[in-house]
Design a protein that fits this description.
Order of helices and strands of chain B: EEEEEEEEEEE
Order of helices and strands of chain A: EEEEEEEEEEEE
Distance between the termini of chain B: 37 Å
Shape of chain A: globular
Strand content of chain B: over 45%
Oligomer: heterodimer
Number of strands of chain B: 11
Number of helices of chain A: 0
Helix content of chain A: under 10%
Distance between the termini of chain A: 41 Å
Chain lengths: 112, 114
């Protein structure tokens, strides 16, 4: 079975500070991992994905994530937070092709 | 290219009624999935359609049903609505249902059951 755990349902950072959103997964086979962002009253937008190859993946808006198999983690980072980064972030895992398993989300607040 | 569009954006129903939600997939996408996102939760997989056939289903009762049409648009039907069905319903499409292919989401239909 696959599952995703996002540690910290709410994260607050100051503008310009490092953003770190945590994601741990459980999967019986090599997973495909994704980070999505959701702005108020909108659907989910893909930030980045890991399938195979390089374990450090870069996404849109300056975000990146590193796949660490030994730690079963896929944490999302951004060196410098911007006000426009305030949103809900979801980590997801897929390995069957039929469904994605999403975490419960982390709400990011950016303090000016 | 057009993205995923859903209708209606908001609707209110009463317990026991039936509802139909609609989704037009992104051009070139033949696989459509539906997700339920309750308030404060992540999306939960309802089912997936590939070339008009259901090819995956999550832990939802049979009163949640769907259709996919030849143009790859899709419907989600929910019968005998319950209060807990209140949620944002998200449609997502992709080119094929291989695991590595990303989901492209619509903005959702927010259903309130009174």
């Amino acid at each position: 079975a696959q599952s995703v755990t996002q540690l910290g349902s709410h994260v607050s950072v100051s503008e310009g500070a490092l953003v770190l959103l945590r994601c741990n997964y459980s999967s019986s086979v090599p997973p495909y991992l994704f980070w999505y962002v959701q702005y108020p009253n909108q659907g989910l937008q893909l930030l980045l994905k890991y399938t195979t190859g390089a374990t450090l993946v870069k996404g849109i808006n300056g975000f990146e994530a590193e796949f660490k198999k030994s730690e079963t983690s896929f944490h999302l980072t951004k060196p410098s937070a911007h006000m426009s980064d305030a949103a809900e972030y979801f980590c997801a895992v897929s390995n069957t092709g039929n469904q994605f398993y999403f975490g419960t989300g982390t709400s990011l607040t950016v303090i000016p | 290219e057009t993205g995923v569009t859903q209708s209606p954006t908001h609707l209110i129903k009463t317990r026991g009624q039936q509802v139909t939600l609609r989704c037009s997939s992104q051009s070139g996408h033949n696989t459509v999935s539906w997700y339920q996102q309750a308030l404060g939760q992540g999306p939960q997989f309802i089912f997936q359609y590939y070339r008009e056939e259901e090819n995956g289903r999550g832990n939802f009762p049979p009163r949640f049903s769907g259709l996919q049409f030849p143009n790859y648009s899709s419907e989600l039907n929910v019968n005998a609505l319950e209060l807990d069905d209140s949620a944002l319903y998200l449609c997502a499409s992709r080119t094929e249902w291989t695991a590595a292919n990303v989901l492209t989401f619509g903005a959702g239909s927010r259903l309130t059951v009174l």
